[in-house]
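can u pls check wat happens w/ zinc ion
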Amino acid sequence: MSEVLAGLKPESLWKHFGRILEIPHCSGREKALGDYVIGEAKRLNLDWKRDEAGNIVVSKPASPGRDRAETVILQGHLDMVCEKNSDVQHDFGKQPIIAELKNGWVQARGTTLGSDNGIGLAAALAVMESGSLVHGPLEFLFTVDEETGLTGARKIQPGFLKGTRMMNLDSEELGTFTIGCAGGADTEITLPLRRQPAGKQGRYLLKVLGFRGGHSGIDIHLGRANALKLLARLLAELEENMPFRLAVFEGGNKHNAIPREAWAEILLPESRAGEAESVLKESFDKIKVEYQVVEKDAAWSFAKSKSRGPQPLAPSSQRSLIGLLLALPHGVLAMHPEIAGLVETSNNVAIVRLKPARAQITCSSRSSIASALRAVRLNIKVICRMAGAKAHQPEGYPGWMPDLNSPMLKALQDVHVRVFGKPAVVGAIHAGLECGLIGEKFPGMDMISFGPTIQHPHSPEERVYVESVDGFFTFLVQALSALS
Ligand SMILES: [Zn+2]
């Protein structure tokens, strides 16, 4: 094992984490790590099974006298995000992750560490191995491919688990319980377009850029501007003042990112370009005031375009497109009435691309309440219908509705007070977690998520706070005893 980790407490957890670092396990390639888990189960004479997707469950009988307790599931995901700094040579498929200890934190050398979710897995393996803990019957659930689309959790079959209470060990702040997450679903919009020649006119490129963007779940409540919506708004303002023809409209590149830049090409008589520029400038300056606190680097540009680009849209197509983009909702649509700061429902207008005969628009909606998610999508569908567009709405992933009356939450709060001298902060997140999918397959499953303190997961700056790992494990051990 890496010498850096030797001597850290609790020893058995760090021993397993050290082994995990040595086994390549990027998303989609976590089989070897699964084999390690199964090897451990065999060595300990425990029952195990692996489903077609690669998910593994290991069962461990209760400690003496505790077999009447309800079964508790400990869950974590086997895969990790593999990212490295561009100046680092590293083959994630072959080489071990090199851990370093710095100011009380463990981090990797220029790569992601995989403490998300490696520490959770190591904690589960340490519990699995221990002969001295007090607990009821246990199941250890190891899922595959969480990071790229929750596919492991999505493919679990009902019947794979017996337990009715589940602790997900994939949270990133010691002292916090997560008790809910958002469900999400995309809408792919297709708006048919006609194009029509415009005669001799000048072609201009209008850009909005420098916006902060961010994750469409985690950052949606921070009041950041959506570059696509803003560009549509500028064009609508211009339309109020003078006729022009739109040829290009584009921006955004990920369904789960708030778009940071967008651009359009418009055609108008060269003699009116100066006038257009001043209308746009005046509109942008006003918008900038609205966002002055959040979007300090917001910028725009308007310049003669060198491109010979596509023909402009027919006026009716142009009206439909700009109208549709203005009407689609963006941002927070509802806050949770009881959990302070939790976004309940939101929508992100994420991507726009123009093809010769159609516009493609992607929207990403989220809600912790299934019916509210359905309502937003219905809303989008109706807006599309009114604009003459088609909305394709593939099935999304379910949310996990917070249950403030959960019996396990009550029990674990008592344990938290005993271990740390204060109750945990209870929250939920406006993004997807495996609990949403697992809760859907196993109705009535009482779930909670917690973990040690991990910063900057998914990036080479990822690090885990050593002291928090000890606290996390102590809490986990006490929680298992309290529930037995
Ligand atoms: Zn994770």
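The first strand starts at residue 47 and ends at 50.
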